[in-house]
Design a protein that fits this description.
Elements: E1 5-10, H1 15-26, E2 31-38, E3 46-49, E4 52-58, E5 69-72, H2 76-88, E6 92-95, E7 104-105, H3 108-111, E8 123-125, H4 129-138, E9 147-156, H5 163-177, H6 209-222, E10 228-235, E11 242-250, H7 256-265, E12 269-271, H8 280-284, E13 290-298, E14 301-311, H9 315-333
Parallel strand pairs: 1-2, 1-5, 2-4, 5-6, 6-8, 7-8, 9-10, 12-13
Antiparallel strand pairs: 3-4, 9-11, 11-14, 13-14
Helix pairs in contact: 1-9, 4-6, 4-9
């Protein structure tokens, strides 16, 4: 057992933060003292950990010198403001916002080796759900594919935007099922029984932050800085679980049988045979793997590999990956 650490979780009352605390308990992470931090609005509430109610305190007044490791799960603004203070206090940081440009993006199944030469206190980034799913599914195939380009269509659950978005989808669904007039609040239009063509605001070129993050993080995780990758992410009326339709074009013809064998042997991958397919609700939610299905060669192009991926966006797509990174970090701290 590794030596127990004093740890802080920033954003402990949010969907990802609460999941992170639960996974720390589930995996029996060596925690000495757990400090739960949030905004002034959420401070004073309690979160269960190891059979005890822990009081949430304000992040604004917290002294990060009290801890050796801090998870940041409270969004870009909070990470940009407080993560540098944590590093200055000698605390290693694992950020889940994607907002810290100097943070090293890591997925243990894909590029854990990059931790070898990293100095402490570390600044790590746990990537977004899409990049994690792609890295877990494609890293085992690097010896079989000479990747030329990747196209991704992401179908994202509303929980990626927090508890308010989940509540809004539930409220809209209830309003419509009871034949009551619908007034959108969190989303700018009807989300229930609908698909929105983008997730968040787009930039001057029509791309969203989520799409740009998916593309940039995938290049880093795959070790392919010049990779041609395009991503389109849509908001679907699903509470939990992200899904991705992926097309990979290799420079040589694809051997689907070898691909399937590699996926079957890969860590954190559950392959579903082609007479079936995985779904977020029926398979991924509550699980700690990336489900892969509909593995097939492209029609008319033997170099194309098509895949369907789905994963729990709050667990493997966020909190679990962060905790796995923490496990790697404490080995360096020992």
């Amino acid at each position: 057992m590794n030596q127990a650490l004093d740890i802080a979780v920033v954003g402990a009352t949010g969907s990802v933060g609460e999941t992170l605390v639960q996974i720390l308990e589930d995996l029996q992470f060596p925690v000495a003292t757990l400090h739960l931090l949030a905004s002034p609005e959420s401070a004073g509430s309690s979160v269960m950990f190891a059979g005890r109610k822990l009081r949430v305190r304000e992040v604004d007044s917290f002294d990060f010198a009290q801890v050796k490791l801090a998870f940041f799960a409270a969004g870009a603004a909070v990470s940009l403001r407080f993560a540098p203070k944590a590093r200055e206090a000698g605390c290693s940081v694992i950020d889940l916002s994607g907002a810290l440009p100097d943070a090293l993006a890591l997925v243990p199944e894909a590029n854990a080796h990059q931790l070898d030469d990293l100095a402490l206190p570390a600044l790590l980034s746990s990537p977004g759900s899409g990049a994690i799913a792609l890295a877990v599914a494609l890293a085992p195939l690097k010896g079989l594919l000479d990747i030329e380009r990747i196209q991704v269509m992401g179908c994202l659950a509303v929980s990626a935007q927090g508890r308010e978005a989940v509540n809004e989808l539930a409220r809209q669904t209830a309003e419509l099922l009871n034949a009551r007039p619908l007034e959108p609040r969190f989303f700018d239009r009807q989300m229930a029984f609908n698909v929105l063509a983008q997730v968040g605001d787009s930039d001057g070129h029509g791309h969203t932050v989520v799409e740009r993050r998916l593309m940039s993080e995938t290049r880093v995780l795959m070790g392919l800085p010049e990779l041609k990758i395009s991503a389109s992410c849509v908001q679907v009326p699903v509470f939990f679980g992200d899904s991705f339709n992926v097309s990979v074009v290799s420079r040589q013809p694809v051997d689907v049988q070898a691909i399937n064998q590699a996926l079957d042997s890969a860590a954190s991958v559950e392959r579903v045979e082609n007479d079936d397919y995985p779904t977020p609700v029926g398979d991924a939610v509550g699980q700690d793997v990336v489900y892969v299905g509909r593995v097939r060669q492209g029609i008319g192009d033997p170099r194309q590999l098509d895949l369907w991926l789905t994963t729990d966006n709050l667990r493997k797509g966020a909190a679990l990956n962060a905790v796995q990174l923490a496990h790697l970090l404490i080995k360096k701290m020992a």
